[in-house]
Design goal:
26% helix, 6 helices, five-stranded parallel beta sheet
């Protein structure tokens, strides 16, 4: 994969799509069809949850905005999640599924800062405020290196079997995590409700979990 220099990007390429209100992002259909779901979903960050490489396209320090749906970098560029990501994270939490991040970025502190400043709208009207995105994650493995190392550490910390993990990533080379037993769904244009459903169906088929459990 060729990494592009920040100065070569068009302005529109760095600016994220507008985060959709949580109520406008329907829950993935696989979350209510009565079939098994994985115990954990793990996400890459760059070009999976947000449309940029944080280590080459973003320049700190970062500044929060009033609504928290985007942050501004040193040059005033708006940076945030793909449109449906915030609502999807809320849906995953509502099902009691644990959430992890596995990123090989060379700017781990900047990635964590981004997650700390971004806010996640709530779909339940009875819930007030918008929690920090970073609080949606149970496990954060954000540092350079092999994704298998990220998953080995997540497994050790969580005690969740690899076969109960579903991973979303935009790079096909990271399919090597499947040697551990993890199921990976390759995404091309960021995580969406449709990608979540496809990933869950792949996970069920791979693990023989296509029937309701007693």
């Amino acid at each position: 994969m060729v990494r592009r220099n920040r100065v070569s990007l068009d302005a529109d390429e760095l600016t994220t799509t507008t985060t959709a209100p949580a109520a406008d992002v329907p829950q993935p259909s696989t979350f209510s069809d009565g079939l098994p779901l994985p115990q954990m979903m793990v996400f890459d960050l760059d070009y999976t949850l947000w449309p940029f490489w944080v280590d080459t396209h973003i320049s700190g320090p970062l500044k929060p905005t009033k609504d928290g749906l985007v942050v501004k970098d040193r040059y005033g560029e708006s940076c945030g999640f793909y449109k449906e990501v915030a609502g999807i994270l809320g849906s995953i939490r509502s099902k009691g599924i644990e959430i992890g991040a596995a990123s090989r970025t060379h700017a781990p502190e900047l990635a964590r800062e981004m997650l700390s400043l971004l806010r996640v709208p709530q779909s339940d009207p009875s819930e007030s405020g918008k929690p920090q995105a970073i609080k949606m994650f149970d496990y954060l493995e954000i540092y350079p290196g092999s994704k298998t190392t990220h998953f080995q550490r997540i497994h050790k910390r969580s005690s969740i079997p690899y076969e109960e993990m579903l991973f979303f990533d935009d790079e096909s080379r990271n399919k090597n995590v499947e040697e551990l037993g993890v199921v990976m769904k390759l995404v091309r244009d960021g995580v969406t409700r449709e990608e979540i459903d496809k990933g869950v169906k792949n996970w069920r088929e791979r693990n023989g979990r296509t029937k309701p459990e007693d």
